[in-house]
Amino acid sequence: MNVLLLSWEYPPRIVGGLGTHVHKLAVNLARLGVNIHVITKDVAGEPDYEFTEGVHVYRVPLYPPEIPQDDWVPWTLQFNVALLERAIPIINERIGKVQVIHSHDWLVAHASIALKHAYRIPLVATIHATEYGRHQGHLPGPMQRIIHQVEWWLTFESARTICCSNYMRDEVVRIFQLPEDKVDVVPNGIEPGDFTVEKSTERLRRKYVEQDGRMVLFVGRLVYEKGVQTVIEAMPEVLEKVPGVRFLVTGTGPHARSLKAQARESGLEDKVRFLGFVDTANLIRLYKCADLTVVPSLYEPFGMVVLEAMVAGSPVIVADTGGLKEIVVHEETGLKFKPGCPASLAEAMIRVLTDRELARRLTNDARAYIGERYNWSRIARSTMEVYQKAVRHYEYRPRSLKVCPPLPVPGESEGVG
Fold it and tell me: How does DSSP assign 246-307, residue by residue?
């Protein structure tokens, strides 16, 4: 089977969890015999084409003029033109017949849909998150409304839509008005072998905490919906019971400045450390150093950080929301707390940080629970089954020349257009 996979992230370009997901999926599909071609954004110093780990990887530069990436809509349209320019000769001259186009999120929707219609190839779309969900059911401005409509359009055009959790499946069915039998749930995965380290982590730990101190870790993009502000609000109560605790925040994002200001205004400058971007090797060491990993998201379709922490041996506390509640079994593989509630979070943090036997049990049970459930080989086979369904039931329908009506947003009286 020949598969063309489009994604705006692919290693070494890692912005969030999407890039890692696409990489692991592509490599494991290749191991199953899929002839897989990935087209993605270029990276300085990386070749524009390479065949690596059984995957054909093409990296495309943007057209001029340079558009700031935070100006999402025009940047994305510009990027999709570049994707199309590269994809057409790849299909015509290198691949030949493509059985499936696999699109990851709205940022590659335009190129994916254009290729679908130009070549009459079934399109499979993976929706990793939605703009509606990120903003807690509100679309505050024109950009968010446009992204929401593009997401709807991508799911409408797809032969099959993949979501990473039952929570996400229910969300996309509801807000995009999809038939339930068009949506498949395929979780994210983890490879335990990626989380081994040869060197001791003790020196790294001493860099951040005292001999008898306790380390709490956050990993993720610094955006409001990731909930770091809840941890900072909980810290004073935690420090009353566990004076030596330090909270390490890894990652970058638009919310960084306000989070640093919050920590400073709360008198926590020496208790909360913002580490910025941390490469994979050091991130694994931090997981292994941590006495606790906190995932305080207000919105989380899946929660890859939870699997990473579990495999690395760090006990986890998660907000009882979204896909997180499907991974963590409360009191068995981790603890849950009420999303956005500092008091609930502080109580859970204090329990884990003061009860080493509880922390040990949660860690051991979590490792046993992951087992084969989140194995990448299994996930690749499930994705192959989705591809086969898409091919088997695909019937090409030309794109209507009529303009689609504005998509109504559940819970709002007016459309989003």
Answer: EEEEE---TTHHHHHHHHHHTT-TTTEEEEE---HHHHHHHHHH-SEEEE--SS-SS-HHHH
Q: Which one of 2.20.25.90, 3.40.50.2000, 3.40.640.10, 3.30.930.10 gives the CATH number of domain 193-370? A: 3.40.50.2000
Sheet order of strands, 272-276 included: 272-276, 245-250, 214-219, 292-295, 316-319, 335-337
54 with 27: CB under 8 angstroms?
yes
Res 97 pLDDT > 50: yes
CATH classification of 2-189+377-393, choosing from 3.40.1180.10, 3.40.50.2000, 3.30.565.10, 3.30.70.270? 3.40.50.2000
pLDDT single digits (tens) 192-229: 887 877 667 888 898 999 888 999 999 998 999 999 99
413 pLDDT above the threshold of 60: no
pLDDT by residue (tens digit) across 106-128?
Answer: 999 999 999 999 999 999 999 99
Report whether 417 contacts 142 (CB < 8 A). no
Q: What DSSP line would sit under 2-42, residue for residue?
A: EEEEE-S-BTTB-SSHHHHHHHHHHHHHHHTT-EEEEEEE-
Q: What is the pLDDT of residues 31-59, one digit of tens each?
A: 999 999 999 999 999 999 999 999 999 99
In the beta sheet, which residues pair with residue 219? Answer: 250
Banded pLDDT at 415 (limits 50, 70, 90): very low
Residue type, 142: P
pLDDT at 145: 92
Q: Provide the sign of the torsion angle of the four alpha carbons 73, 183, 367, 333, taken in this order.
A: positive
SS3 state of residue 67: coil
Q: How far is CA 275 from the centre of its chain?
A: 20
DSSP 190: B
Rounded Cα distance, 351 and 245, in Å: 13
Burial class (CB in 10 A: 0-12, 13-18, 19+), 217: buried
pTM, 2 dp? 0.83
Which is nearest to 219 in space by CA: 307, 282, 295, 318? 295
